[in-house]
Protein 1
Amino acid sequence: MILVTGGAGFIGSNFILDWLSQSNESVINLDKLTYAGNLQNLVTIADDKRHIFVKGDIGDSGQVARLMTEYQPRAIINFAAESHVDRSILGPEAFIQTNIVGTFRLLETAHAYWKTLNQADKHDFRFLHVSTDEVYGSLTEREPAFTEIHRYQPSSPYSASKASSDHLVNAYHRTFGLPTLITNCSNNYGPYQFPEKLIPLMITNALADKPLPIYGDGKQVRDWLYVSDHCSALRRVLEAGKTGETYNIGGWNEKPNIEIVHTVCALLKEMTGGPANGDYRDLITYVKDRPGHDTRYAIDARKIEHELDWKPRETFETGICKTVQWYLDNQDWVASVQTGAYRDWIESNYIQQRQ
């Protein structure tokens, strides 16, 4: 059995669905169910006895300790995090509490549990911490991509909190011997992504004939990773990764944000025949750039390729087609997550900043 934290969020829920389609090993899913945690993501396994959902917080050491004692997981995969840069600028404290304090408490509880195991189980136990390429900061146009030894230079409260959590995980390996693994991934996209992130926001706004807000000039470059490829990489790292090591996971798909938006608009027009008048690109609206906006992220994923024999299966072209089609086919899901709180967030963060 494995313990997955944050398993009702975008990447966590995809990982659990993927895990149970590949394995008979059960999953304990611990999730606080904040705004981006949604059990509807897991409705297809609602009756699957291999999936044990527990509502809770990684910062609740007593609850986590009880779960570990009861279920005796052989591994912990930590997805639980506040993960949106813009939200971290407006309200950084939640990021400090979840990403730093929460990770610390989870490590403390995992370490205490690990010490109770027999030697064989100690050897086999893993703590896999899922992090981001944003801890490395920003690259210029010509700089080489991030490797695992790139200097940490986080720019936002979000990336600084994730950098802190990475350092804590490494410290618990080096000081206490806890068998940890860290992965730093590039921008994920795909099914079940909450529509505050670029791709689902563009899809949902375009279909609703709303403005498509683009920060600054839209030329910020990101590497894009289809979420199912990320899940397969995590399975491989858990299976064969060397403890104490970090593995960068990327899609080899560097693209500027404005190109992503144009691609989404073209696919929507092709798949829906709409809009009735004009073009979805007519909805593009440039808004004031966010503070400290990183210029470029790029992942060098050669280490995981050479050491663990992993490569992404999806190109951006195949992945984005699947993603747009999923949102078209799952409008009920989109409607269900667009609560009043979500609309207030979009209003305060984008519409009031329109240039």
Protein 2
Amino acid sequence: MAFYELYNEPTVSGENFGKMTWPEWKEIQEGLIAHIRRIDSETIILVAGFDWAYDLTWVGDDPFTEANIAYVSHPYPQKRDEPWEEKWEADWGYVSDKYPVILTEVGFCLEEEKGAHVPVISTEKYGIDLTSYTERKGISWVAWVFDVNWSPQLITDWDFTPSTQGRFFKGYLQSKRKQ
């Protein structure tokens, strides 16, 4: 199944990005949703929160009412300090109690690995905590990124040698296949 993700990483943080309220953002999204629905009434539309698609706190007070909407978060490890679970629940996890949520970018890399930068620096602990939390909540996720130049990388070369996170997520998915 395909999705329409309206904006990958919306943000209004900092002087360089301008300012926008949730009602203003929601109105823009609703306009785009209406245009899409004229040609496709069934495909799921993914709506991301602010803070580079991390923050979904606004959904509790003002969710979309249109059908086939799912919410997006990108909970990279340095978006919040450890322990993460309580913060994830408050920032985006609670949304999955009523609405579909998909984490369209998750990932980490070690500090010494190629492309290490805030907010992706962490260890396998992030992967363990994230997959455990999302399993309990029924939240889907997509590991980012299958590339040797963008990070956090799943592969280190075009022979497809897994990076630290590549090994972690590959092992995690293979363990699910055996169940």
Protein 3
Amino acid sequence: MKSKIIRALKYLSFLAAGIFIFWLLYRDQSFSQMEVVLKNDVNYIWVIVPLAIGLLAHFSRALRWRIMIEPLGHVPSRANTFMAVMIGYLMNLVFPRLGEVSRCGVLSRYEKISFPSLVGTVVLERMTDVIMLLLMSVVAIIIEFDKIVGFWINHPQFQQKLIATLLSKWLLISLFLFILFIWIIRRKIFTHKIFGKFRELWGKIVEGIATIKTMKKKKEFIFHSIFIWIMYFMMLYTGFFSLKATSGLLPDAGLTTFVLGSFGMIAPVQGGIGAWHFMTREALSIYGIAKGPAVIFALLSHATMTMLIIVVGLLCLLAIPLINRKKL
């Protein structure tokens, strides 16, 4: 009971942090002015286009996950895999990082696949996504080196927080004490029956990660990994055309905004609330977009992505038990 309360408080604190950042961004905005902009200055055709692109990206992610699962000796249906992915995204809006566990649980239930092995494939997937984000970051830095370095210099608070976190004496002391504690009780840990169960569970997770070695469709895996992130970029870039202030921005501005915004999405808050908006606004400021239009674009773009996940995720949540009623 105590652990559940602590977990709930942690999630609520992350949500509160996101809402607070969101409030800081929009507190000075005139909502009546925003309403005028949304009515008169938004081309809603270019709001719909990112939705279609987003669906392509999510379907591609489902196909890639299916390729990763095949070495485990299972070939889940495309429909179940896609619905599990979308349900996972939906759960992430409620509890950060719960979506990865949720989609593994959904697919495990309806396709009778080992849950820990599925978790392993998701770990592999996240590792691949990190590599792709880093590659896109490198490309963005190469193309827009002066602007990104300028952004870093003009935001010393990021540098200070990063350095303070890495060099925090409490972090270093805690890490040392933890390692010392594990070293002292290592024999008791390794001989305890719980360790045996953990080792068995870890073996299943490693089995899922190891599918990269036995994967037969490596070319398709690489294609989908690249395609997914190109589509994510296109979701944001095509959204530029929905607003007059951002419609003239070039792809290089889109790439910088996408990369910085992606780091905002990594923050442990529901759906990147606040953090994504802030990073997007600051990225757009590099290209001369005023604060007002920048926050409106961030609000519009994030709302579009979120509504896609909510609508499709809820439909999948309702549809998956009906489609699989004969399997249960």
